[in-house]
């Protein structure tokens, strides 16, 4: 499977958790495994960095997620999800001020077709 197809499959798995929450652990574990394989093949692929960081964020590994999301941005990503999801990760492991910088930047960006938005409950983080 190529990098693009791996990212598509990971997105399908994550989307599937919203239809059937009983598959949350199974789907997130599988998406994480797929994305780790993609990173082994292409460690600087921006979509994979964003998606892996997003999976980590949604699994509660916020600090680790920031590493991958920042790397995607450092690689030149202008993807809305890189900025917004970094904000979500930071709000859970840093200060609101740091998080808001990235969330505000996300507003002027476009979302990538292969990426998705991290789950964020502003009342429950």
Give a verbal description of the structure.
The chain is mostly helical. It is built from six helices and no strands. The protein has helices spanning 3-19, 24-41, 46-58, 62-74, 80-91, 96-106. Helix 3 packs antiparallel against helix 4 and helix 4 (62-74) packs antiparallel against helix 5. The longest helix has 18 residues, at 24-41. The N and C termini lie far apart (35 Å).
Topology:
Layout: H1 3-19, H2 24-41, H3 46-58, H4 62-74, H5 80-91, H6 96-106
Helix pairs in contact: 1-2, 1-3, 2-3, 3-4, 3-5, 4-5, 5-6
Distance between the termini: 35 Å
Topology order in helix (H) and strand (E) letters: HHHHHH
Q: Please count the beta strands (DSSP E, at least 2 residues each).
A: 0
Average pLDDT, all residues:
94
The total count of helices amounts to 6
CATH topology: Serine Threonine Protein Phosphatase 5, Tetratricopeptide repeat
Percent in strands: under 5%
State the name of the first-level CATH class: Mainly Alpha
Structural class by helix and strand composition: mainly alpha
CATH superfamily descriptor = Tetratricopeptide repeat domain
Gyration radius over CA: 13 Å
Q: Can you summarize the main beta sheet?
A: none
Q: Which stretches are low in confidence, meaning pLDDT under 50 for 5 or more residues running?
A: none
Architecture per CATH nomenclature, i.e. the level-2 architecture: Alpha Horseshoe
Give the total of domains: 1
Helix content: 55-70%
Q: What general form does the structure show?
A: globular
């Amino acid at each position: 499977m190529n990098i693009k197809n791996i990212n598509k499959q990971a997105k399908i798995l994550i989307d599937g958790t919203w239809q059937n929450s009983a598959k949350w652990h199974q789907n997130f574990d599988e998406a994480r495994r797929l994305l780790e394989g993609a990173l082994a093949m292409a460690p600087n692929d921006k979509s994979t960095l964003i998606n892996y960081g997003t999976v980590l964020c949604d699994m509660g590994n916020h600090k680790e997620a920031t590493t991958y999301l920042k790397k995607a941005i450092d690689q030149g990503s202008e993807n809305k999800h890189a900025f917004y999801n970094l904000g979500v990760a930071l709000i859970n492991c840093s200060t609101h001020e740091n998080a808001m910088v990235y969330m505000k930047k996300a507003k002027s960006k476009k979302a990538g077709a292969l990426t998705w938005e991290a789950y964020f409950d502003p009342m429950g983080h």
